Amino acid sequence: MTIVLGIESTAHTFGVGIVSDEPPYILADARRQYVPEKGGILPREVAHFFSRVAGEVVGEALSQAGLRMGDVDAIAVALGPGMGPALRVGATVARALALHFRKPLVPVNHAVAHIEVARFTTGLEDPVALYVAGGNTTVVSFQGGRYRVFGETEDIALGNLLDTFAREVGIAPPYVVKGMHAVDICAEGGSFLEEALPYVVKGQDVSFSGLLTAVLKLYRKGYKLSDLCYTLREIAFSMVVEVTERCLAHTGKKAVTLTGGVAANKVLNEKMDSMARLHGAIYKPVDVKYSGDNGVMIAITGLAAYKAGVTIDPRRAFIRQRWRIDEVDLPWYPWMPGR
Length: 339
Ligand code: FE2
Known about the structure:
The protein has about 350 residues and is α/β, with parallel strands linked by helices. The protein is built from 9 helices and 12 strands. The strands form 3 sheets. The protein has a 5-stranded mixed β-sheet with strand order 3-2-1-4-5, with helices on both faces. Strands 8-7-6-11-12 form a 5-stranded mixed β-sheet, sandwiched between helices. The protein has a two-stranded antiparallel ribbon with strand order 9-10. A hairpin with a 5-residue loop joins strand 2 and strand 3 (about 25-35). Fe (ii) ion binds next to helix 3.
């Protein structure tokens, strides 16, 4: 049996997960989320929060699993992409644990981990994946040893679009409650506006900033908020589903998944499901428990990587704020625990 402890600290969540390659696979999932009193998150404040809670989150994960550090075979850590100060806390903790307990250290790309935890929880072997979160909007598919990017946002991410709109029109905090974003709640009873709004898909890439500006302009003109929320959501979701659909048609794959913080969204799930049906493909989103950032996804990916021989010298384990998903070799693909 191989046991891996994974550390996540790329954005607002400090998470520690422990997994093994034998049932029940997931042994621990401890996390703390930084929630700003108002406005966006400041990297330095997040790092300060992470440094305060890191020790107790590691301890909590070990006690959930009923293990001691000595029982762990390897330490995995998300080295990027993400916010520098936040990443540095996770990397420092991981390096210290690896050196002190003489454990191998496994570097993990956070974006790869969102896809891997989706493959793990859905049982889908080789899906096209739509990864949507506060800072990410990417369509990927495995090809030639890596996840290749088939489309992405040219400016802001889908999650950021919804959160920023919610904040600007005063329906924040935009946190997702049972798959309902503030924009979803507000969209109830709304209808589609016939005004020409920017639906921007260029080649395989999407752009949301023009849409955000245009919808905010209508808001200031006094348009009904429920109509604006409904329309914004319709356009933005249709854009990402269109790009995913083209990737599915192009690759000829038979499965689709949805992952990342926005994956809990009910309306987006319905659109993805009907698109997949049209192509005779299976659609399954990531288990909603692991859609947001967490340590389990880092541990699962770290376990797969470690078993395939991927490790890094702790003294050379530097963070990479802009580490792209298509720069990562996946020698373990499509292996996942239990398969
Ligand atoms: Fe994430």
